[in-house]
Input
Amino acid sequence: MPLPKLPTRPAAILTFPTAEAVPQATRKTATKPAAAKAAAAPAAAPRTTRRKTTAPVQPAAPALKVAGRSYADDEAMQPELDGMPKSTPIAPPPPAAVAAPAARERKAASAPKAPRKVIPRTESEARKLFVLDTNVLLHDPTSLFRFEEHDVFLPMMTLEELDHQKKGMSEVARNARQVSRSLDALVNDAEDIDAGVDLSALGNKDATGRLLFQTSAIHSTLPADLPMGKADNQILGVVRALQEKFAQRDVVLVSKDINMRLKARALGMAAEDYFNDHVLEDSDLLYTGVMALPEDFWNKHGKDVESWQQGGTTFYRIHGPLCAQFVVNQFVYFDGQMPLHAQVREVNGKTAVLATLRDYTHGKNNVWGITTRNREQNFAMNLLMNPDCDFISLLGQAGTGKTLLALAAGLTQVLETKRYTEIIMTRVTVPVGEDIGFLPGTEEEKMLPWMGALEDNLDVLNMGDGEGNGDWGRAATMDLIRSRIKVKSLNFMRGRTFLNKYLIIDEAQNLTPKQMKTLITRAGPGTKVICLGNIAQIDTPYLTEGSSGLTFVVDRFKGWPHSGHVTLQRGERSRLADYAGDVL
Output
């Protein structure tokens, strides 16, 4: 019998039939692979005798396997081969793959899966979208440019409320007009306002984001209990709609209104306070101007100490690791075996120059009859009497003597040494309770009810001076003092310039950083500015201990050679006031 023709195409991976696939009659003859029989068949001589069997029993054709699919014969595989590229060879697998397919499958099943690849968000999706409430713009008119690379969105209701607040001469009205001018300058050259405006167009290089406006009506799904006629609820609706529109971005509401932030969080929206104007997150980190030296100070810094005297003051040049932490005009003290109360005059790496202080606790060094009662008051008086210090800030709770020390030093330098021509005193007119309404009279007469602290301290300063002169002497002295003290309102400070004045800003914790800048920049040649306040008694809305103007100037003026700061710790008003300050 002639042998069947050899296949014209190379075989793919061959899989041999199992025992179930081979017919029962041929199981005994199918012990060798069919490929071996086919290879050995051409070498054998052709047989001429015919076997007696009527029909030869042929073994089942091996199944062909291409690309993971099995085919019973060559014709079944033909459609798949025709669809493959002509240049793609069908190579036989390596022997190891044919010998152990089951082991390979078990190994693949037990191998760890590759980690899922996370597709990063685009640059625009990674930037946050901050929705600004109106009170943020009214609090800080430059807040548009304080969000760095993130985008800012202004709802239409925010612009509407800005329009309502722009009239008047108050600080809020001025801020609203400044925001409107900034927005007008930004959109003046914008080609497509729907696509947004670059916040860096006005020269603010830190603001690399875009400013977006609400240019169409926005329909949101807020609870039916919230009336949509209220401005806050309309802004919340805009935030909800933006969250649905930009699902891949973080949409955050920024508001100074605590209740609005609470409503936003209750509705599942992200809301934050405006923290960019905060100088410090914790008021305990505020610079105090005083440092206590450790017990081993002289052991580490007592070598190679240089000392000299100049102008009645003794100077020490010390070397050590603690010198790098000193700040110019900072006070340091050591109460050990070798006590030291000094002021830092110069810092250069691990070398510092310290200057001794004048002891104002002694009666011979009294200032307008006043002697200091504790260490911090002595430090403050050394600053107030120093002609090289142009700006001084004093912090402390009620009764620590801030106003009394400032007035005593001012009267001495105005009436005795003639260093300044007059004392100007001002403060923020923020009532503790209900406002009593308009007051009659001139500017000074209107300010007198707010200057009760001035009158009380003047009585203390005039008490000891007129004892030997009687009532007439005290009255004459009080008239002289009043002629050199002017009470001014903050509302009329803009545009003025003070020459050789002693300016006292009382209750400075109620000033914003912008108001503080307006006041301090009024100082002309020869003027000293003293800021007094207690950041624990802030009465102005939207101001906190971290965002107060007094905190702002203490942090910004730290280390300037012509400024100084002291935080007074102990109250000296009375034992009742001290106890009430501790327990109430």
The longest helix spans residues 171-187.
